Amino acid sequence: MTTNKAVVVFESMFGNTEKLSREVGDGLASDGWQVVLADVRHVRPEDLAGCRLLVLGAPTHAFTLSRPSTRADAVRQGAPESRAELGVREWLTSLDVLFPVVGARPSVAVFDTRADRAQHWPGSAARKTARVLRSHGFPVLDRPVSFYVKDVKGPLVDGERERARAWSQHLLELLRAETARSA
Ligand SMILES: Cc1cc2nc3c(=O)[nH]c(=O)nc-3n(C[C@H](O)[C@H](O)[C@H](O)COP(=O)(O)O)c2cc1C
User: Fold this and answer.
1) What atom of ligand 1 comes closest to residue 149's alpha carbon?
2) Do 17 and 60 contact (CB within 8 A), yes or no?
């Protein structure tokens, strides 16, 4: 039996999205999946080979995915400069090169982190990510999901790690349902 492989790619300026990505990855691994957790700056093409599920996580900046200017703003607020090198927005521009065979594209699931106090603000990084993925023909498994931080730098709102872990199990259920439908 071949092991299912998931790749969790994240962007994170202050470490909150990274923590949640680890939770999602650990949740998938606890179900027997092979999991590659990769910072968007360091994903290698071989990391993506044979991937059945791609999870993408990113912080919401200015109502959407970060840009070099918003990441520079985060650096001014104390984030490590090296983390500003590349974001999910830029990485998505290489999707067609990274996944050249349309029929072999993995299912994708997307999440973002947002400020708790901005829950009612419009726009989220995950919604933008999902739009781009759909426009490139990727099957988006679930609705974009947001997790919350108490302030720009974090920490995570209580219970968000557990919610991320539960979301990983929900993704597995959706995948099982998808597999049953196509059997
Ligand atoms: C420049 C900048 C713009 C931001 N804009 C928003 C926003 O529009 N909506 C929101 O909910 N949070 C916003 N935030 C808060 C981020 O979502 C928060 O810093 C992020 O979720 C933390 O995740 P990280 O530790 O992985 O970087 C912004 C943060 C920065 C630095």
Assistant:
1) 21
2) no
